[in-house]
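Re: that chain you flagged

S.,

Sorry for the slow reply, it's been a week of failed gels. I finally had a moment to sit down with the sequence you sent. For the record, here it is as I used it:
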Amino acid sequence: MTRTTLIIFACCVVLWFCVSQLNHYLAPTHLSLFIGGLLVSFSALRLEFRAGWWASLLIGLLIDSSSAVAFGFHGLLFVAAHVGIFNLRGCFPREETAFGLIVALVAN
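Prediction finished late last night. Pasting the C-alpha cells below so you have them in one place:
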C-alpha cells in the first residue's frame, strides 16, 4: 500500500463517519443516506489500479464492520465497482467534476 492509498482511505473514513452521524439524526424520520458510490468513484477515476483497489477494499471492509451483512460483502462490491469504473475510465473525460458525480451516482 502506498501513502496515497492511506490518505484516500483516511478521507473516506472521515466522510463515512460524518454520514453515519447524519444517518443517526435522520433515523427518527426513517431516512438514511448511502454514499458508497462516492467513496469508490474518486479512487477509480484518479488513482492507479493497485492503489485504488486497496483503497476500495479497505473502505468496503470499514463499512462491513458496521453493517448487518456478511463481512466482506461491501468490500467485494466496492472492488467490483472499482474494477468496472477503472476499465471504462479511458472512454470518458475522467478529470471533469460533473462526470465524477455521474459516475458516483451510477456506482451507488
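What I noticed first: The helical segments are 3-26, 36-46, 49-64, 73-88, 97-107.

Talk soon,
D.
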